[in-house]
């Protein structure tokens, strides 16, 4: 089976390959094609993968190319993990937004809109190429903003594109561990959009254990989200929010923490990864060791500003191991081998949430089999959550409209309507600022 990874020179690709190396079952991936626009990055990552594969006799073959069409032809699965504009683009997204006093995070608020405006046209081009060159392939989208990009690609690929994120899975596993349950045996009642969802129940043997967690302040304070949001607020919600909702519920504190930080997250990662790729230019550098050291630092500093503003302290060691590669492999296995499973995924709504239309991409538990991912029926969201979901989905639709039409006015509308952008004038200045620093937004007229 052939797997193509777009953004194959990206820093997190070895996580995916490591998961593939642990899969020895029939029908596994035997050939991985890495595609990237940067040949130097491809070379660096290929070296890391070669060291990972040392001593593994049935390791998947790895080839690399800068030719997109060549990479897609004959693919059974396509992982889309691109970053349009690179980490410099992410740093610019943060800087422009923070100068206006609003959030610049890559998937939430102004930064997420800017990232979407320059990513969607590229993702749509990829979707059209997949439809032409590999019509039977399944596309698994890692590219942020994951829900928005998945919805854009689904207009050309239908249900053959599925978005993944490790945040809901990690949240569910943390709650299960705190409750003394086996995460693999728990049913996680999770619903929302990507980076905008809530765990409303965790059922073990048919019993919902979440009320027990919400009633115990000590348990609530023992894991990442409890530290971020505080026990009182979680009890008020009656649910456990995705960690990214900290940007909404504690927006002023988050923006202030980012403004006061020595470097934004994007600038930190830009500089950190530049050092990694520079070090990899030395042919004698121990590729896997250098990569692993850099990865550990990256994971340990994840959402550091939010944890600092909440007084949450350091991340637990169990939360430093990533996870999206495990979701991707489980999804691929379920489809390729008809190994039926349940995963939280980004898929078209169908009739799952009545407040959204059938084509809106949402993030919910799905039953997965050889025919793809099928969202399960969920209870309606409470009013406060429904309001947020509908408002953010409306913004995503304006982003898609702006990329379709090239309308600058529609782009301004997308920014202005977002709950974390509090002024039409700010929205106008954001569009001006982003079009000045991002050549990829020249299409907005």
TrEMBL record:
Reported cofactor(s): NAD(+)
Residue span(s) of domain Glycosyl hydrolase family 4 C-terminal: 190-421
Cross-referenced InterPro entries: GlycHydrolase_4_CS (IPR019802), Glyco_hydro_4 (IPR001088), Glyco_hydro_4_C (IPR022616), Lactate_DH/Glyco_Ohase_4_C (IPR015955), NAD(P)-bd_dom_sf (IPR036291)
Entry keywords, A to Z: Glycosidase, Hydrolase, Manganese, Metal-binding, NAD
Stored PROSITE patterns: GLYCOSYL_HYDROL_F4 (PS01324)
A Pfam family annotated for this UniProt entry: Glyco_hydro_4C
CDD domains: GH4_P_beta_glucosidase (cd05296)
Co-factor remark: Binds 1 NAD(+) per subunit.
Family: Belongs to the glycosyl hydrolase 4 family.
Protein name, entry field: 6-phospho-beta-glucosidase
Organism: Streptomyces djakartensis
